Amino acid sequence: MVNSRQNIRDQLDQELQNITFTSADKVHARIHPTTWRQRIYALWNKEVEISGSTAGVILLAFTLFLELVVSEVCKQILL
Known about the structure:
This protein has helices at residues 2-15, 24-31, 36-44, 52-78.
């Protein structure tokens, strides 16, 4: 098992020896931001995952809040 795994690794290393990654500096700069501008950009660039039920609850709460605000404004206008 270990020998076959080592053989596969050696074959993979041999096949990939001519391939080099040239953008390592760019990737490193994005992963480890140094300036405030890079840090803000990295923070802004985050992906957020929200489940369907959570999104539904947030949408419902926003809708109820909006309804409350609109009804209060209408009451004040009519008075």
